[in-house]
Amino acid sequence: xxxNFLRKSRTKGVSLxxxxxxxxxxxxxxxxxxxxxxxxxxxxxAQEGLSRVQENARFAMEVLTRNIRxxxxxxxxxxxxxxxxxxxxRASNAGMLPVNGGSLDLARAVxxxxxxxxxxxxxxxxNLVAGTPALRLxxxxxVSTNAADESFQGGNFDISGNPSEIDQGDLVMVxxxxxxxxxxxxNTTAGEASGxxxxxxxQENDPHNWNEIDNNYNEESQVARxxxxxxxxxxxxxxxxxxxxxxxxxxxLEIVENIEAMTFAYGIDTSNDGQVDxxxxxxxxxxxxxxxxxxxxxxxRSEEVLSEARGxxxxxxxxETLQFNDRRIRQLAVSTVSLRNRLP
Length: 344
Known about the structure:
Blueprint: H1 2-10, H2 16-70, E1 84-87, E2 103-105, E3 110-113, H3 117-120, E4 134-146, E5 152-154, E6 156-160, E7 171-175, E8 180-184, E9 187-190, E10 196-200, E11 213-217, E12 222-235, E13 241-246, E14 252-257, E15 259-268, E16 278-280, E17 291-301, E18 312-316, E19 320-324, E20 330-338
Parallel strand pairs: 1-8
Antiparallel strand pairs: 1-2, 3-4, 4-12, 5-11, 6-10, 7-8, 7-12, 9-10, 12-13, 13-14, 15-16, 15-17, 17-20, 18-19
């Protein structure tokens, strides 16, 4: 009986060596679990960062291509052209537009520069990234409508409906494709005839118009909202490079952040056959009316450092090569956009 008791007692418990082996195995398993967790987390962060980069690239290109496509749109079609736009604004509400009887040269309704500072001179945005290119566009936007008056001059006229939702404070363009005017709407009311809208743009004190329309338009004249916009790279309050749009009013709107670089190339028709013969940098364009399309490249980066450090190089339309050796994810988006108002 005593021998059996001793044998049973020897089988109880775990030796120190067995305990250490078990702990080692547990640590190895735990290290594996931690490694898998860290790897999965890093992968998820990288995938999330890439998705955000792709989303920002798509949105930036959507905004740019939509506006570029409309560049130079003057409400006139075919061989009808208008070369100058009379501006009826006072200095206090002109923004990027001429004032007190000035005019816009629609031959430069599409105009780019290799250095954004050249687009504004002393009026450049304070957050502009020096040495980066910029693009300025002017165009009518929205659905146009006809004037409803047989003949009008002065401070009021009716339009046939309001499909582009012209409202108080909007910039509006009117043209008969021989002359054109832009003015700011003071207010809108119901017109005399059913379905018409009366637009008031009378000469009044600031912040309204400097003078009234003196070109004689008729019911065949086209009316639509008007936009003048410039796109450039600037830094936001956190120092992040972003795509900005400066509007007619002169204020700048941040479109999307982490846009690290942007480049434009301009498709020129040198043979006057309605076809692009070559692409040029802004500084090489001599005739902006000959620009039929614009090629745009946008380089987008991730907000955080996510991947292993490696050297990456990006060709910006053959105009420059950008090289990085940090841990950010980047994507280069390129698109070629035809100017719809200049298609044959």
